[in-house]
Amino acid sequence: MQMTRRMVYMPPKRGGRLDNILTFCDACVQKQQPNSTWTIDTTLQSGDEAADEFSHVGVALLNGTNIVVKLMIYGLGSRKEQSVQHLFAKKPHVNIVQPICSYVCDDSPIKWQSHVQVPQAFCTGGPSRFAVIVQEFIPGGSVRHFDKWTDAIWVSITLQLTFACLELYESYGFIYDDWHSGNILLDTTTDSEYVYRAFNKKWKVSCVDNIMPVLTDFARCSIIGMTKSQHLEPCDLASEISIVWDMMRNSTQNIRYLEIINDYVDSIGSLERICDIIRTVKAFHKDVHSQNKLKKK
Question: In whole angstroms, what is the distance from residue 30 CA to residue 51 CA?
Fold first, then answer.
């Protein structure tokens, strides 16, 4: 089959953690030229390790900087990834991995079933259509492998993710819907605190030890308008927050925090009105914040 490449979009120069993002976007376009070769140098996840649709995730170089390349068999999951890239290229969010570009090309799945042993060129032609998702590389690892937990860090990350759910729902029409510890990357930030804005309120949280959680992998997400039937309800937001709290329960040994989580995780998951969700989040915020103050005394 003749190799074809097609650019889906190039995001504008706005926000994000990569400096001079437009230069990375331009370089990504150049990598798609027929006479250009681009390689994945290290595998983060092989095709055989993919949980859902076939994909290979690896690290490549762009402008001398490590970035992430996802090779996904073209389908619903990859189209969602592209939609998310388009959404957050126009309007970046601190807790969403920064997009660079995406395009489609032809390649062979057989090449990408296992970890690469040497740099492996992609988009070299083959029987299958692939979506190529290019995004920033965050070297700090994920929550799953983080081993420096303190009570203050746990509170900070839990609240950042909670307030991000509120902001992403209201301002972006976005539900993540793939919460597990391997999908939450941990980046360092120069900000000592961050203010989230949702439902006419400001939600301020300290970035303890300058740690900021960043979400990746969007094949299961929901975005308003993605399909004609796609819409979000308050119960979707309530369920999202409940899952976040349940997930973060596994990252603390503090009995009091576990008690607080247990008190709230089931109750918020059953709520169907925004006002009730906001009231519960405020109460949760007050309880974990009060407990954190007690620990400091």
Answer: 31
Q: Using the predicted structure, report yes or no on whether residue 172 has a pLDDT greater than 90.
A: yes
Domain ranges of the chain: 5-136, 143-296
Q: Is the pLDDT of residue 69 over 80?
A: yes
Superfamily classification of domain 143-296: Transferase(Phosphotransferase) domain 1 (1.10.510.10)
Give per-residue pLDDT as tens, 207-263. 999 999 999 999 999 988 655 455 789 999 999 999 999 999 999 999 999 999 999
DSSP the chain: ----EEEEE---S--SSSTTHHHHHHHHHHTTSTT---EE-EEEE-GGG-SSS-EEEEEEEETTEEEEEEEEESSHHHHHHHHHHHHHHHS--TTBPPEEEEEEEEE-GGGGSS--SS-EE-SS--SEEEEEEEEE--TT-BGGG-----HHHHHHHHHHHHHHHHHHHHHH-EE-----GGGEEEEE-S-SEEEEEETTEEEEEE-GGGEEEEE---TT-EETTSSTT----HHHHHHHHHHHHHHHGGG---HHHHHHHHHHHHHHHT---HHHHHHHHHHHHHHHHHHHHHHH-
- Distance, in Å, from the CA atom of 193 to the CA atom of 162, rounded to the nearest integer, reads 15
Instruction: Report pLDDT for 53.
Output: 84
Overall pTM > 0.85: yes
CB 113 within 8 A of CB 50: no
